[in-house]
Amino acid sequence: MSSGQGVTTPLDVPASSPPTSSERQDIASQDAIVRHAVGVERALRLVEALAPLRSRNETLSTLVQFLASEFPRCHIRCGIGHQSVHRLIDARLGWLPPTSELFQEEVQAWETDATENSGKRDIERAERFGDQSEPAHASDEVILDLNDDSTPGRCRLTLRGGTITPEDHQWLSRAATSVKVLLWRPENSMLAKAFYALSDTGLTTRVYIGLCCLAILLLSVWPVSYRVRCTTVVRPVNSRVISAPFAATLQSVEAEPGDHVRKGDVLFELDGRPLRLELESINAQIGHARKEGDIALVGGRVAEAQQAELKVRELSRRRDLIERRLGQLVVTSPMNGIVVAGELIRSIGSPLETGKSIMEIASLDSMRVELEIPEYDVGYVHKGRETRIRFAAIEGEAFDTKLGDVYPSSELRDDQNVFIAPVRLGNDANQLRPGMRGEAIVYGPVRPWLWSFARRGWEKLVWWVGY
Description:
By secondary structure, the protein is α+β, with helices and mostly antiparallel strands. About 40% of the residues lie in helices and about 30% in strands. The strands form 3 sheets. Strands 6, 8, 11, 13, 14, 15, 16, 17 and 18 form a 9-stranded antiparallel β-sheet that branches. About 20% of the residues are buried.
């Protein structure tokens, strides 16, 4: 073509000159900036994917799947544990059981990494993930230790196969710190915490814990007799309470608590001087009244003689009462037994009121134990039930007996509404004492072992629901 037609021939195109050294440096720096930005963007996407997760299992699973999408030609595995690997996940196979060959290989690699090759791997890791802007060369294997800095927890991430470029090394190393924080953060679920604490233990420990849980489950449903626990108090079967026969002053005491007495033995003596003075006065009044009656009868005053006779009768009755009281000054024991109450040594010379309890004498050959059954459990005990009684004062010995009749009415003892059920126990060894307290178990109907503990809560729940 001619040049007049306005067409430029290829010979007219200016030839491009090769880039200078400064231009090549600019291009290289721009490529480095682009690669760095891409690496930062990939690290941020990984952190964003892991941030919302709260379960450690979900975090590991998401981490492996994300890396699998970024490195489709690599085999990616991640193991977590303490001294040994406890769980292992593969990007293609998922969670691996401990019996698999891959799991056993990871266990061996885990132990080797912790002992022999730990120093060598640290050097290699420093070379790969140091402060260099770019690693020297690409590789086909990367091992990241995502260990917890505050606990013995360990996590080992492995990428094998394919080609891992220096840029991949850089963004993985930058993301490792954030991934560790997200992986080992505290979990919100208490159940998850317990599960991971259990998973961190060895296989033998988990087997023992499982056996213990199975044993507890069997015990909870094992049928046993329902046990009604109650308090007891010892009372004497035969006892006598000695009270003051009339108002008088205590003169002497012949028996103290703990003394053995027989029927007719002197217990204490009352002061009879006021009674004797009153008796002499009454005798004088009787003699005077009789003389007045005789004079009135001689003088023919029949009415005065009758009044004098009535006065003599009144004074005679008073004299008989005083003589009877004089015969009661010495108080004796009405039975054979032991003085269980009544310390009167400090009361000598003090006035005693009529009917006031002063001493108690009881026979200790046989004792009555009163069981204080709680109102809540009274429906589960009946006459003839097996009963075991134990006293704190008698160590190492329990009394097995049958439950007696349960009194139909309740009593208020120690601010609790209880029903009384007495049983009789022999006391040949004189171990039981009146007033002694203890504990008793009454065996009720057969129920599951767990029912004894869950019954109260279950009934409250049913009542709250409205049934």
